[in-house]
């Protein structure tokens, strides 16, 4: 019935070219004249209507006091734009449909590499080389993990010295994450933010989150693999910067400070776009392009 409306039924911008998230709250997400709009202050005499560029963003975060029409959901689904219902300040996410690009080449390539023990350890060594700046000669995963763990401890100390933060080691209590000291709390929140960015990058390429090359048990193993590539340059930068602000007297909650800092860093350094490029590099997708060209020839 709606085929042909504004020519939008065939338009779809790749998520790698979109602008990330848009936050809306206290209004109605609806469709007016074939376009997505957000009507704020609907019950007042002067409602404010904002046209939403749904094809130019990857996800709409719908905050408290908001509703969405059936027609809006249809439009979002057709153009691959996600929607999540979130709590105050985005602290809770209540629903988020999976991002499902219409492709399988990256997933098949990942499964091919993961399924071969020799190629799997080769990918793991490549990822460690990307992090550590050198190719380690070892081919045992536990040995590589031990070397990486030792170097991470050194990086923690160096980052603490750089930001003038007292550092007593990495501690994390899963049962009570707020029981740790300020820098450890900041690292926990920053790691969560970076993992969320990695999840977006993994899903945008339709890679398989469960098939990690370094992490194994988690259902987000590959997401954790990609997030770890940014631990030194992004996660710890955010965490220790926030910890310093708290130490000098900022009484804003640590999780809020981390979210604010992460949003600035992600935007300035194009973190998600960079992660997408790293995933392609890790999975050597250029080999797919070459083989495809050869078969076409």
From TrEMBL:
Binding-site residues for Mn(2+), renumbered to this chain: 148, 215, 228
GO molecular function: DNA binding; DNA endonuclease activity; hydrolase activity; metal ion binding
InterPro entries xrefs: Cas1 (IPR050646), CRISPR-assoc_Cas1 (IPR002729), CRISPR-assoc_Cas1_C (IPR042206), CRISPR-assoc_Cas1_ECOLI (IPR019851), CRISPR-assoc_Cas1_N (IPR042211)
Alphabetized UniProt keyword annotations: Antiviral defense, DNA-binding, Endonuclease, Hydrolase, Magnesium, Manganese, Metal-binding, Nuclease
Top-level taxon of the source organism: Bacteria
Enzyme class, spelled out: hydrolase
Cofactors that this protein relies on: Mg(2+); Mn(2+)
Pfam families named among the record's database cross-references: Cas_Cas1
Its biological purpose: CRISPR (clustered regularly interspaced short palindromic repeat), is an adaptive immune system that provides protection against mobile genetic elements (viruses, transposable elements and conjugative plasmids). CRISPR clusters contain spacers, sequences complementary to antecedent mobile elements, and target invading nucleic acids. CRISPR clusters are transcribed and processed into CRISPR RNA (crRNA). Acts as a dsDNA endonuclease. Involved in the integration of spacer DNA into the CRISPR cassette.
NCBIfam families in UniProt: cas1_ECOLI
Binding partners and assembly: Homodimer, forms a heterotetramer with a Cas2 homodimer.
Membership in a protein family: Belongs to the CRISPR-associated endonuclease Cas1 family.
Protein name (Swiss-Prot/TrEMBL): CRISPR-associated endonuclease Cas1
Organism in which the protein naturally occurs: Ferrovum myxofaciens
């Amino acid at each position: 019935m709606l085929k042909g409306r504004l020519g939008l039924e065939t338009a779809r911008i790749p998520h790698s070219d979109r602008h990330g998230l848009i936050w809306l709250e206290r209004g109605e997400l609806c469709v007016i004249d074939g376009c997505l709009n957000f009507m704020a202050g609907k019950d007042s005499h002067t409602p404010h209507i904002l046209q939403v560029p749904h094809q130019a963003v990857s996800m709409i975060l719908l905050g408290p006091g908001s509703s969405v029409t059936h027609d809006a959901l249809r439009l979002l689904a057709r153009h691959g734009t996600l929607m999540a219902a979130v709590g105050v300040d985005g602290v809770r996410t209540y629903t988020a449909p999976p991002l499902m690009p219409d492709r399988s080449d990256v997933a098949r390539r990942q499964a091919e590499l993961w399924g071969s023990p020799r190629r799997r350890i080769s990918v793991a060594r490549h990822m460690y080389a990307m992090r550590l700046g050198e190719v380690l000669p070892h081919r045992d995963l536990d040995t590589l993990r031990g070397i990486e763990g030792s170097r991470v401890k050194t990086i923690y100390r160096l980052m603490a010295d750089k930001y003038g933060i007292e550092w007593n080691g990495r501690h994390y209590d899963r049962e009570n994450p707020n029981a740790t000291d300020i820098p450890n709390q900041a690292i926990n929140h920053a790691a969560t933010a970076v993992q969320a960015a990695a999840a977006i990058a993994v899903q945008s390429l339709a890679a398989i989150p469960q098939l990690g090359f370094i992490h194994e048990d988690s259902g987000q193993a590959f997401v954790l693999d990609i997030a770890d590539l940014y631990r030194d340059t992004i996660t710890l930068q955010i965490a220790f910067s926030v910890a310093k602000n708290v130490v000098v007297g900022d009484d804003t909650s640590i999780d809020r400070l981390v979210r604010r800092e992460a949003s600035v860093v992600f935007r300035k350094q194009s973190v998600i776009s960079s992660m997408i490029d790293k995933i392609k590099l890790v999975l050597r997708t250029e080999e797919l392009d070459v083989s495809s060209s050869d078969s076409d020839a």
